[in-house]
Amino acid sequence: MDDQSILTTLKILIIGESGVGKSSLLLRFTDDTFDPELSATIGVDFKVKTITVDGNKAKLAIWDTAGQERFRTLTPSYYRGAQGVILVYDVSSKQSFTQLGNWLNELETFSTKHDIVKMLVGNKIDKDQCGVKSYWLQDQCDDRREISRDEGLKFARKHHMLFIEASAKTKEGVQCAFEELVEKVSKTI
Amino acid sequence: MSNSCSLLTSISSSPNTVWPRVPPVHPSGEQKEQQDGSAKEELSTKEDNGTKDNKDQAECCSVAWQDMMSVENDFPSRTHCLSRWYGLHNFIVLSPGPQMDEITTESRLNLLLSSVTIALNNTGCQTPIFVQAHQKWRKLFYGRSEFPGFSTNYEMVHLKTVPQQYSHLAGLLDVFKAKLSSPVSPAPPVSVTVRFTYLLQDWVHYGWPQAPPDFDSNSDIGFTDFGDLPFGACEDPVSELHLSATWPSLSEEMIVEDDVYSDLDPLQAPHWCIRVRMTDSPTCLLGDFLLDFVQLCRKTESTNQLLSKSLLSPTSETDVDVSQALSRLTEPAPIPLPSLGTVVTSATSKLAMKPEEAPIPNDLLNKILLFLFPDAKSDAMDVDKVDTGHGGASDDMSSSKSDSSQTLNEQSKEMFKQFKSAPVDSLPYRLAVCMCIINHSYGGVRAVAHLWQEFVLEMRFRWENSILIPDLAAGSPNMGCSLLFQKLQMLNCCIERKKAHEALQSESSTPSNDILASTPMEVDTEDNKKEQKECSTSSDEEEFFECVESSDEASVPPRDTSIGGGGDAKLRRRRSKRAMDAEKRRSSMKQKSDDDQSLLEESDTPSFTDTLTHQPEGRLRPYNDLYLLNIPGEQLYVPITQEPAPMTEDMLEEQAEVLAKLGTSSEGAHLRARMQSACLLSDMEAFKAANPACTLGDFVRWYSPRDWVEEETVDDTGKVTVKGQLSQRMQIPGNMWLEVWQSAKPVPCRRQRRLFDDTKEAEKVLHWLAAMKPADVATRLMPMSVHAAIATIIAQGENHLPSLQTLLGQITMKATQAMRAPHMDCHRFEELMNKLAQAEMIITRAQSLHTKFNEERHDVDISDDALSSFVSTLLDQPEVDIVGAARGPLGIIIQRLFATAQKSAGLFNLSEDERDGEEYTSRSSGSSDFPTPVGKEYILRTTVPRPAPWSRPSPQRMYCVLLKDDFRLAGAYSTDTTFQ
């Protein structure tokens, strides 16, 4: 099984506003766990996972970045050489969505590959239900969805990105997001 | 027979030979040829081959005849000679293999030909088969083709001289008719197609745009010589122009050409076409320079090996030598501003080169350095060293250059966007161009080594004297640029920081004593231990960072405290260094040293103690309208923070590798976070200093606002209160943020430990530069050289040439790949340079042709575009038709080209007294504008019954070509085999 195909190493990047769940997505993908008490990333973090896409094994070197403004002087250095990028926003935070343009600019400026494959992930769709049982209480629920699926899809289309909605908490869409990205990346090399 | 007749078989065919034949639009272009050169077959096997053609029998019954008689296939521009001579598209050639004897005897030839005939008859193959006889170079082919009821003989006559009586149409017609010996009388008329080819070789009257540079004159080297890569061919890349005038399908009665009279005036010819012959690989400057330069990448010699011979004493440690050189410079008391003159002197004195053995003579070196570092000139007060005349010239050049680069930028911005080189006209870019020129014209690899050494010295000089390197993009290293560019940017970052410290030092005219970074004595003791290292103390552990923007009074700069602790030698060195500095700085420096004194006296001042009641320090600006959580009404301030450390891509790679090596375990992740928390700690400390009595909540609201969760609660009275708290993840006990926050002391930015050690980084860069061998230098300069070369090519403005466009597309793609490859690969660059040379050749050819046509243009009604597109077709296609022949606009221009050449040839041939201007001017429009044709071709065709009067008529054809020393008749004579 190990010899069945050549192992390629792909550099994948995860970016997005702070607190949108970048590290949680990664943790869900690599360890299939969810830790609500994951501390805020400092600088960049790094994880490795080997996956099989289309019968080809690929070793993913995934760089997880801190979303804080201040770290943005530091983290873009790691954009170099990335073949795929996962751009994350929080469906329950309008602000994390409106900032996406800035992140794309950042990517444009610092990534060295011009054909980098981009995947937009709307995280935290588990919050959609937000546990409110009565209709009249919905308005008072802070955590409800602020960005519809359509909005996300539109943005992704406009900027030629793959798109998926996911939840690191419920596992929904996470595996799929990474696999689709890798599939597209392996087609571009 | 099987042995001796083993023959090479080649089959030629063209796709458009299906009956009924559609006249091909461009017979020359579509004619395809398959040469089965390697197949060695015996005649017997050949017969099997022929049977394959049987099935086509019905279709291509008279393909050979059609080909023979079709005027479409007359004078194809590029094809097999048999196709040219017999007009055939499909044929089979038998020729002796490489080891075989040539067929020299007639009996052997006839034996073969009769075998061929039998084979053709047996197989029913209608494709003509040829046998090559005699020496290969004579290209003598005899052949047969069979067609039910008919057979065609292909015969050939080849002579080295043209017999006088057959040098014209009349004579050739006689030969043709005699050969046919038509049994009917009068013989049917012969149709004649004639083509005369005229040669134009004399281009002396057309200014060749490229003036070959004079490399021998060392005296008059302008600065432009180093700024632009040379371009162009040293010789005219266009050698000949052939004009072919064609008279197609005339009846023999209509034209007369014999010994004394000729109807064939090229001006009257209905059809003209021209072809140009190019000089085989003319010497082109750009290609030459580039290929020479790329060869440099393969050299293995080190700088020392190359230069040691010319050095008086081997250079030992650079640092020591430089400082000696510097102190030597400072001996005369009043030193002017650091001019390049002094730089150069210091450098050369350091190298201690025997003047006569230095690869680059001193005055030339000065000019080059001045070109590379133009900023040294503006400071220069030393007029002796810097020639003002040259200075002016360089000014002109730089202005005109920026203009041209501007237009160039617009054109090729997109193209260069992906290039990982350096901006146009930046220092590395100019260095690359300069090195390329130095290597080619001023001494090769030794000169490159020499100039590089000087360059590295200049870099060190600039670092030690805090003079910014000119013409580099400001800011952190741009990773979209080549590594060399990044390294120089890095050095500039270091210099900038160093300047910032120095500025802070010098402005400390009224030093405040309340806040001191540490006691100077402490620093001194630390420093003494490391005294031998370097005079600068900045690499010291105890070093503190001084903030640029600080409006507060500067603390005592540790740098200066070393004066007290350092020995005499150190002081002297510092002094000498200082003396190097600008005049305008001198006064302040003097003042400062006084201050130093006073500071030293006050060194007993107690050190700073961290208390909660400390005064706020290092505030940048109020942050929005946020107030501290603990102290209502107290404004939250954004602190002044340290700039992140600039990094070059190799440093980053190293760091990424280290981080990745920590693995993916939670310990690894923790360690990784800790490693990167230095910046966080520094920011927290600055924040604490700026906001006394702040909490992590305050910090988070500034630093990571999304980790401050606010909730609106409505109390019983209906009053809405906003309650905020740290996000869940920030509240986890023992998380890194909390941990760092707890360990952070309130320290303003300027007293923090530096995140970026400019001295260390500068030394690293300087070491990197100094360790490069000439080959490494060349390799590192490759991206810029390629970039400059492409820019040079684009600047020629010939981009409309289709062949150039394709080539440039390829070059750009390959260049981008080569520049972005993790390792600079000489092979790839060599390939690129070859392609660039090719592009240069295309351009020089186009330019040469364009100039020639343009000079005879005068009043001819032809647009620039039409002329340009004509030139580009001439480059792309072997032969170009002239619309309207002699009467078309291009025809007129071509006629003038010939006339000018003829006129000068005539004048040249006349002796002085015979020269009569009138005669020549009056004849200028006559056909005497043309020289005698270098080649005459005739195709005679007729259809006559042979061999008997009752035979059916069959096509007959004779092709004649008359060159200066080559006379060839190729006849295809058909006979009726049924009615004979």
UniProtKB/TrEMBL annotation, chain A:
Coiled coil: none annotated. It catalyses: GTP + H2O = GDP + phosphate + H(+). The keyword Cell inner membrane does not apply. It is an enzyme of class 3 (hydrolase). PROSITE patterns: ARF, RAB, RAS, RHO, SIGMA54_INTERACT_1. Its EC number is 3.6.5.2. GO terms for molecular function: G protein activity; GTP binding. Keywords: GTP-binding, Hydrolase, Lipoprotein, Nucleotide-binding, Prenylation, Protein transport, Transport. GO terms for biological process: protein transport. NCBIfam families: small_GTP. Belongs to the small GTPase superfamily. Rab family. This is small monomeric GTPase. It comes from Ridgeia piscesae (Tubeworm).
Automatic annotation (TrEMBL), chain B:
It is found in: Cytoplasm; Endoplasmic reticulum; Golgi apparatus, cis-Golgi network. Belongs to the Rab3-GAP catalytic subunit family. The keyword Endoplasmic reticulum applies. Residues 539-552 have a biased composition (Acidic residues). The keyword Cytoplasm applies. This is Rab3 GTPase-activating protein catalytic subunit. Residues 505-516, 605-614 have a biased composition (Polar residues). It comes from the Eukaryota. Residues 781-979 form the Rab3GAP catalytic subunit C-terminal domain.
